[in-house]
Amino acid sequence: MAHNILVLDDERNYLVVLEAMLDEAGYNVTALSDPELALAYLEESEVDVLVTDMKMPKLSGREVLERVQRNYPHIPVLIMTAFGSIESAVEAMRLGAFDYITKPFSNEQLMLSIAKATQLADMHRSNRLLRENLEERYGLHNIIGKSKVMRQVLEMVDKAAPSRSTVLIEGDSGTGKELVARAIHFASPRKDAPFVSVNCMALAPGVLESELFGHEKGSFTGAVASRRGRFELANGGTLFLDEIGELTPELQVKLLRVLQERKFERVGGAREIEVDIRVVTATNVDLAQAVQAGSFREDLYYRLNVVRIHMPPLRERREDIPLLAAHFLAKYATENAKDIHGFSSEALNYITGYEWPGNVRQLQNVIERCVVLASGTSITVDDLPAEVRDEESQFKSAVDLLPARLNLGDTLEKIEGALVRRALARNDFVKVKAAEALGISKSLLQYKLKKYNITG
Fold this sequence. Notes:
The chain is α/β, with parallel strands linked by helices. It has 20 helices and 14 strands. The chain has helices at 12-24, 35-44, 61-71, 86-94, 107-138, 148-160, 177-186, 205-213, 230-233, 249-261, 287-293, 298-304, 321-335, 345-353, 359-373, 386-389, 391-400, 408-426, 431-438, 442-451, and strands spanning 4-8, 28-32, 49-53, 77-81, 99-102, 167-171, 195-199, 238-242, 263-264, 273-274, 278-283, 307-311, 342-343, 378-379. Helix 14 runs antiparallel to helix 18 and helix 19 packs across helix 20. The model has no long low-confidence stretch (mean pLDDT 86). This is Two-component system NtrC family response regulator.
């Protein structure tokens, strides 16, 4: 793809020479002699590199540079002048010029500088496209769900995103906590700055401290060079700390200080580093109980828990399961070039009625497996893994997930409620059929629906 070069010079002889030279090199060239006309052209056209003279009537090259830096910071600007000096060169570079060339210049010098500028323009374009892709991929509209509990989550994300406040996302593993964290970032004023993610459980405490705060050269064995930590890398953006409940007491103290003062020191360092970040955390444990147990600092908990978002398990948002299943089916059918368009009604009933202990992540993996192994144009019951379609396997897996100590009466009621919900889902919410599947009368089913507050 040919790059678009805008050349601005009030000397027409230079314009003619530059236009011919750049055109011969394969660039798309627009040559203008009026600075105001050039600025108007930038508003309506895509320009990769601007080459401008320094001394011109109406507006100087410096004034053009300042306006481009303010309105089009992604466009590299090359300054040309016949009145070159060290002072003006330094000033142009200080204002953001990509390069500074003194007239008369060699053709090789100019072409080399423009080639480097187009490389920078390509990098800016790639970063912009990547950022737009990330916004599209992790935007609020990509969180799938129409259930009441998910509408509440989306409403909380929408309200919390514009603020600077810390957000605590709670929920079981696989419910999509990081997806919500990214949605908060890309719906916030910080969306053009970095989103940096750290899993606090994946790293040993000593390694995690260095990963978060960075370290100075020689601060420990193997520290052969200074290294910036995730707090510095996230400066201006969002730092997402997953599994925050796994932090050691020492790291909890350090995190609390950063949240309070926005300052920290690298491991082995003495210089304070200031950062401007928004912290979003997630956990699959009950931090309030951890505070009561003494394993998590109460002051840190209140610092993190300014805005709390609870991600419901999949079994509590069953009307979203068909939507998610269809989304993953389309995704993996495209990726695997498979002509698969949907689910049989029986397969969808099994998928909707399953408890999904692994939540959305497990559902995603199951649908991917089905797509890869399916031989027809739709997913049938035979394509489902045993744990989803086999009653005994389902029951055994559900029992194995129960805690060792529990109240038998409460647990039996929860199991009964789950069985009633599953029977409804697997029978298209037709109560007569659900009652037959459970081996009970319709009136008894009505009683149990009211008892467990179950609606169709």
